[in-house]
Design goal:
- Residues 101-263 form the Integrase catalytic domain.
- It is a single chain.
- This protein is an alpha/beta fold.
- The chain is built from ten helices and five strands.
- The protein has a five-stranded mixed beta sheet with strand order 3-2-1-4-5, with helices on both faces.
């Protein structure tokens, strides 16, 4: 073992470090939250989770805890591809102007499309987010990126929320969103279209951050061999994101918790 005799006897005499039941529970809970997030929770987010469970821990304490347990955040670099609109399609005005904080649900929604790579080829995901709570209220994934992709995401959102007329939907100027078919769909739902400027990624920054979390914190952590596997994994993340992922903008509540707390305040 290449250990000296003196070192061995010193080790024998050293007292065993005793871990209390509370500390052991803390270790187990920290590992549970970290693994559930696919190794994506930093110390600040992990501290919030632990404090919600009744553990009185500081930022420094969680940093030491993560080091002790070997909890290291892993990141993967994602890719981004954009689409261009047809020049014959109309462009809506920018009604949002980077105001990402409406005061009630179903006032402003935002959406976009992203590319997802699998072992069988590409898949495309369209989402609709309610900017009030950051909740994903509609989404659709398919192996083709068409107007039908974004239309189905919007129809799912509309059927779930039944928003009042006048709601604003903000997107980029991609060909799917500027198409006549999609503009007619929004008009039938009584939804007003809003579009960001060309090349201004910050015009839809909240949705971009969601896609970053989806890829960096979840999808790229494990192999995605098939389209069916990707579909199931996206479904799992949508559930985790809406129900469990804490948001600073929501007062450290998940999107669904934030909406429920708002309803309680009103009632």
């Amino acid at each position: 073992m290449k250990v000296s005799r003196s070192a061995y006897y010193a080790w024998l005499k050293r007292p065993v470090k005793i871990i209390t039941a509370e500390q052991l529970n803390l270790y187990r809970m920290a590992k549970h939250f970290f693994e559930k997030s696919r190794n994506s929770l930093g110390y600040r987010e992990l501290r919030k989770k632990l404090r919600r469970e009744g553990f009185n821990v500081s930022d420094y304490g969680v940093q030491k805890l993560m080091a002790t347990l070997g909890l290291v955040v892993t990141q993967r670099v994602a890719y981004k591809v954009t689409t261009k609109r047809k020049h014959s399609d109309a462009v809506a005005d920018n009604l949002l102007n980077q105001n990402f904080n409406p005061v009630a649900p179903n006032q402003v929604w935002a959406g976009d499309v992203t590319y997802l790579r699998t072992g069988e080829g590409w898949m495309y995901l369209a989402i609709v987010m309610d900017l009030y709570s950051r909740r994903i209220v509609g989404w659709h994934i398919d192996k083709r990126m068409t107007t039908d992709l974004v239309s189905k995401a919007m129809m799912k959102a509309y059927n779930l929320r039944q928003p009042p007329k006048g709601l604003v939907f903000h997107s980029d100027r991609g060909s799917q969103y500027t198409s006549k078919h999609y503009r007619k769909l929004l008009a039938n739902f009584g939804i007003r279209a809003s579009m960001g400027d060309v090349g201004a990624c910050w015009d839809n920054a909240v949705v971009e951050r969601f896609f970053g979390s989806l890829k960096h914190d979840w999808l790229l952590k494990i192999p995605q061999p098939t389209r069916e596997h990707m579909r199931n994994d996206v479904t799992a993340y949508m559930r985790y994101y809406n129900l469990e992922r804490l948001h600073t903008a929501n007062g450290d509540l998940s999107p669904i918790e934030y909406e429920q707390s708002s309803l309680r305040k009103v009632s």
